[in-house]
Write a structure and sequence with these properties.
The complex is a heterodimer of chains A (about 400) and B (about 425). With about 400 residues, chain A is an alpha/beta fold. Helix content of chain A is about 35%, strand content about 20%. Chain A starts with 8 loop residues before the first strand and ends with a helix. Chain B is α/β, with parallel strands linked by helices. In chain B, about 30% of the residues lie in helices and about 20% in strands. Classes of the chains: A alpha/beta (about 400), B alpha/beta (about 425).
C-alpha cells in the first residue's frame, strides 16, 4: 500500500505543470486499459461483468486480461458471484455505472458485513436514473457515502489522472485485501473512454498483494480481530477449520446474534478498522503556492480542469493552491484542515450542487467557500479561473 | 472409520412440527451417505426461518441476503477448485420467489450446486404472507380467502431451464436419498421439499393435509430431471499478456510547428470513417511529438446517425481533456452538421471545412467549401478532410499521416494516391 503515510504528493511551485514533453514513445490509451492492467498485477484474479456504458472498455479489457472473466446476467448476480468468489479466496473486480451500482447496494452491504475483499469500479455518468449513458458526471459521491446503512464508510478511492489509474487501482486491490473490505474505485466516463497520449514506461512496478491466512490450531473465528482490528482470513472449502460467514449481525465466530455485546462490538469494529488504517490509504495531491490565500479543491475528472485553471491563474500572477482529493471515503481530516488554512476556497465538481463541498462542510457551508458546478458538460478551466478571481 | 457429526448437539431451532427440521436431518443423513467430511461441504443459506439452521451445521456456512443464496453459491462453486467440495443451498419458497432469476440462471448454466427448496407455501418469518409458490385456494394469515392464482411448479421450470437433476419430495420421513442423489450430481440439482408451516399454514387451513394440497395443486412428486453429465474439469487460470504492449507505443520522429494547444473536431455520419480518421490524425500528431487527447461522440446506437470526434493536440502536456469550442471543424455530412452546430456557434474564429452541398454554419469562423465526399467517397471523406487541413495548415508533416495510413490493412482500405490530391 505504498508508504506508511499513504501516497500524498505535496508539490511546491509548479513541478507537475512545467514538465516538458517527453521524446520517448507514448501510447494512445484510455484509462480503462491502465486500470485493468494495474488491478490484475496487484493480484485481482477474477472479473465479473454486466455490460453498461460507460464502463464497457473495462469489461472488454477484462475479457483479455483477468485469469477468469465471467459474464453475469445482472448486477445483483454480479455482486453475489463476487462475494462467492471472495469467500473462496479470490479477489474479484467489477465495473459499473449508477444504474448497475444501485442494484448492487444491498449486496455491497453484505460484502462489507461479511468482510469480503473486492473492488467495484464505478464509472460515473449523467443521472438521475438512466440519464445519459454517454455523458460524464460526478454525481455519485454522496450515494457512496450513504451506501452502507448506519453511518459506515465504504472505502472509496477516486482517480484524477492516468497515473492514478495505475497507482490507485493497485492500491484499491491491496486495500480490499488488507482490510477485508469491498473498495470502490471511483471514476467517470471521460477518464475511462477518452484516449490520451501517455508515457507508461516509467510507471512503478506493481507487486501482487500478500495475504497471510490463519494458521492457528485453535478453532478459527472469522471475525476475531487482530490488534489492527482486521480479522484473519481463511477461505471456505479448506479442511482445517470451519468457516462461518454471515451478512447478519454476528459474533466473532460468525453466528447470528442480535443483541450480544460481542456482536454489536463486532459491527462497530467494521468502521473502526477503516478509521485506524485511514492514514495508510489517505491519498491526495496538494500543490501549495507560498502566499496563496485561495485554494482550488477538486476530485476525479474535474481535477484535470482544476490543474489547468491553477496553471492559468499562476500565469496571470494570481497566487493559488490546489487540493485534489483522492481518498474520498472515509473523509481524511486533512481536507478540512487544509481548507481552513485558506480564506477563499473554490470547490469544482461536475454535479448539481457540490457534493464534495457538502461532504466537507455540510449544508451550512463555510464563509469564503463557493463551488463551480454543472451537469451534462465538463467543468472548464476558465469557469474555475473566473470563480477564483471573483 | 469414525463418522464425523454434521450437526452439533444443540436442539434444532425450529417450531415444533416444522418440516425444516426434517430437511436438516435428511441433509445430514445424505451427506453421511456420501461419505463426505463436514468441511467438504459449504452450506449457503437464504433469509427466512430455514436460514437460522447455520448455527447447527458443522460444515462451512455462509448466510447471505434474501433470495440471493443461489447466486452467492454459484460464485462459491466457481471459486472452489477442489472437486471434493460440494455446495448446498437452503432456500425457502419466499427466497425462491424473489430470487427466481438466479434459480433459472443457475439451472441454465448448470452450475454445480444443490438447491434444497423448503416450500412451506408462505413467508413464515414475516407473519405468513403468500409467496408465488402458494397454491391456489391455500389460505394464509394475510390472505384469509385463499390464493386465487396457482403457485409455481418450480421443478418443471428448473428442469426446462437445463438443470441436471430435479426432484420433488414430501417433507416427511426419510427423503435423504433424494438429497444425496442431488448432492452427488455433477451440475445443478434441485430438490423441492413440500412442507407445511405449523405456525401459519396449519392455523389458516385447519384440517388440511400436506399430501392432499400437493396433489390437488397438480404438483407431481417425482424426479423431473436426472442428467448423467460428467463433472467438468475445474477451470485453470488462463495466461494473458500485459495490456501495455510495446507495439502500442508511438515514437516521436517528426517535427511539428504547433505553438499552442488546439482542438480539431470532425463531424460526419456513422459509417463515414470519422473515428478511424480521427485516430489516424491523433497517432500522426503523436509521432510528430505532440500531446494528444481523442474523444469519440456518437449516439448509443453506434451504427446510425452522427459520428464525431474531438482531437486536442498540443506542444505542451494537456492537463484538461475537454474543449469548449473547436479551433478547426471538419464537417462531412448533414448528420455531422447537425451535431456540430452548437460547437460551431461558439467558434469566434478558427476554420470550418464544409463538405460541398452542406448549408453554411454561419459562425465567426472562416468557412471553406471542400469537395470531400464527391472527390473521395463518403467513407474516406473524414480522413481526406483532415489531410486537406494538414496540407493547408502544415502543423506537422503530411508524411506522419501517411505512415499511419500505410500500416497493414489501412493501406488496402484507403486510396492513398487519391487522398493526396488537394
Amino acid at each position: 500500500m505504498g508508504t506508511e503515510n499513504g501516497n500524498n504528493s505535496r508539490i511546491r511551485h509548479m513541478a507537475t505543470m512545467s514538465a516538458t514533453l517527453t521524446t520517448k514513445p507514448r501510447a494512445l490509451t484510455d484509462g480503462s486499459r491502465l486500470i485493468t492492467e494495474a488491478c490484475v498485477r496487484a493480484g485481482a484474479d477474477v472479473f465479473i461483468g454486466y455490460p453498461i456504458t460507460p464502463a464497457n472498455l473495462l469489461y472488454l479489457y477484462a475479457t483479455r486480461r483477468y485469469p477468469r472473466m465471467l459474464a453475469a446476467p445482472d448486477e445483483i448476480t454480479t455482486l453475489q458471484w463476487m462475494c462467492g468468489f471472495a469467500t473462496t479466496g479470490h479477489v474479484p473486480v467489477t465495473a459499473t455505472s449508477f444504474p448497475g451500482y444501485a442494484l448492487m447496494v444491498e449486496s455491497i452491504n453484505m460484502a462489507f458485513m461479511m468482510e469480503l475483499p473486492m473492488v467495484i469500479i464505478l464509472a460515473q455518468r449523467l443521472g438521475p436514473a438512466t440519464g445519459s449513458a454517454t455523458t460524464g458526471a460526478q454525481g455519485d459521491l454522496t450515494l457512496l457515502q450513504g451506501t452502507l446503512s448506519g453511518g459506515y464508510s465504504l472505502p472509496t478511492l477516486c482517480i484524477s489522472s492516468f497515473d492514478d489509474c495505475w497507482n490507485l487501482s493497485a492500491d484499491a486491490v491491496k486495500l480490499a485485501v488488507k482490510l477485508r473490505t469491498p473498495v470502490v474505485l471511483l471514476t467517470s466516463k471521460e477518464m475511462v473512454t477518452t484516449r490520451t497520449s501517455y508515457d507508461w514506461s516509467e510507471l512503478p512496478e506493481i507487486e501482487p498483494f500478500a495475504r497471510e491466512l490463519y494458521e492457528g490450531t485453535a478453532p478459527y473465528k472469522p471475525y476475531a480481530p487482530r490488534e489492527d482490528l482486521v480479522s484473519d482470513f481463511l477461505p471456505v472449502g479448506q479442511n482445517k477449520h470451519q468457516v462461518r460467514l454471515t451478512a447478519s449481525t454476528h459474533d466473532q465466530s460468525g453466528i447470528i446474534q442480535n443483541v450480544l455485546p460481542e456482536a454489536i462490538e463486532n459491527t462497530k469494529r467494521l468502521q473502526a478498522k477503516l478509521d485506524i488504517h485511514l492514514h495508510e490509504y489517505t491519498h491526495f495531491e496538494l500543490d501549495e503556492q507560498d502566499g496563496a490565500s485561495a485554494l482550488v479543491v477538486s476530485f476525479g475528472i474535474t481535477a484535470q480542469a482544476s490543474r489547468e485553471a491553477v496553471r492559468l491563474l499562476r500565469a496571470k500572477g494570481k497566487e493559488v493552491s490546489l487540493l485534489v482529493a483522492k481518498t474520498l471515503l472515509p473523509v481524511p481530516s486533512e481536507y478540512v484542515a487544509t481548507c481552513d488554512e485558506y480564506q477563499r476556497v473554490v470547490v469544482a465538481e461536475e454535479n448539481l450542487d457540490g457534493r464534495l463541498r457538502h461532504l466537507l462542510y455540510g449544508a451550512r457551508g463555510r464563509t469564503g467557500m463557493t463551488g463551480v458546478n454543472g451537469i451534462a458538460k465538463m467543468i472548464t478551466p476558465l469557469e474555475i479561473v473566473e470563480e477564483v478571481l471573483k | 472409520m469414525t463418522v464425523m457429526p454434521l450437526l452439533n448437539d444443540a436442539p434444532l431451532p425450529f417450531c415444533k412440527g416444522c418440516g425444516h427440521s426434517h430437511v436438516a436431518k435428511n441433509t445430514e443423513k445424505a451427506i453421511r451417505r456420501l461419505g463426505l467430511d463436514p468441511l467438504d461441504v459449504v452450506l449457503v443459506t437464504d433469509i427466512g426461518c430455514h436460514g437460522i439452521i447455520d448455527k447447527s451445521f458443522l460444515t462451512h456456512t455462509v448466510h447471505g441476503l434474501h433470495g440471493r443464496a443461489v447466486a452467492l453459491a454459484g460464485g462459491i462453486s466457481a471459486g472452489l477448485d477442489n472437486p471434493k467440495n460440494r455446495v448446498v443451498v437452503f432456500i425457502g419458497d419466499g427466497g425462491a420467489t424473489i430470487g427466481m432469476q438466479h434459480l433459472v440462471g443457475a439451472a441454465h448454466r448448470d452450475i454445480d450446486i444443490t438447491v434444497v427448496v423448503h416450500n412451506n407455501m408462505l413467508y413464515g418469518m414475516t407473519g405468513g404472507q403468500p409467496s408465488d409458490f402458494t397454491p391456489s385456494g391455500f389460505k394464509t394469515p394475510t390472505l384469509p380467502d385463499g390464493k386465487s392464482l396457482q403457485g409455481y411448479d418450480i421443478c418443471r421450470q428448473i428442469a426446462s431451464a437445463g438443470a441436471s437433476r430435479v426432484e420433488r419430495v414430501i417433507g416427511v420421513g426419510d427423503f435423504s436419498e433424494a438429497i444425496a442423489k442431488a448432492i452427488s450430481t455433477n451440475g445443478f440439482a434441485l430438490v423441492e421439499v413440500m412442507e407445511i408451516c405449523p405456525s401459519h399454514g396449519v392455523k389458516a387451513n385447519p384440517g388440511m393435509k400436506l399430501k392432499k394440497v400437493v396433489e390437488e395443486s397438480g404438483l407431481e412428486v417425482k424426479v423431473f430431471a436426472s442428467g448423467k453429465k460428467e463433472r467438468s474439469a475445474s477451470l485453470h487460470p488462463s495466461i494473458s499478456q500485459s495490456l501495455l504492449q510495446e507495439s502500442l507505443e508511438i515514437h516521436p520522429v517528426y517535427p511539428n510547428s504547433l505553438a499552442h494547444r488546439m482542438s480539431v473536431m470532425v463531424a460526419g455520419s456513422a459509417g463515414g470513417g470519422v473515428q478511424s480518421a480521427a485516430e489516424w490524425f491523433a497517432r500522426a500528431a503523436m509521432s510528430s511529438g505532440l500531446d494528444v487527447t481523442l474523444r469519440g461522440a456518437y449516439p448509443v446506437t453506434v451504427g446510425v446517425g452522427f459520428s464525431a470526434a474531438q482531437i486536442n493536440i498540443s506542444p505542451e502536456p494537456i492537463l484538461y481533456t475537454g474543449s469548449s469550442a473547436p479551433d478547426v471543424l471538419i464537417v462531412t455530412s448533414a448528420d455531422g452538421a447537425d451535431y456540430a452546430r452548437p460547437f460551431a456557434a461558439k467558434m469566434a474564429d478558427g476554420l470550418i471545412l464544409l463538405d460541398e452541398g452542406l448549408e453554411s454554419l454561419s459562425t465567426g469562423a472562416e468557412e471553406l467549401r471542400v469537395p470531400m465526399s464527391a472527390r473521395i467517397g463518403s467513407r474516406d471523406a473524414s480522413v481526406y478532410g483532415l489531410l486537406w487541413y494538414l496540407n493547408h495548415a502544415r502543423l506537422f508533416p503530411i508524411e506522419a499521416m501517411m505512415d499511419v495510413l500505410t500500416v497493414g490493412a489501412r493501406s488496402r482500405r484507403v486510396k492513398i494516391e487519391k487522398l493526396l490530391q488537394f
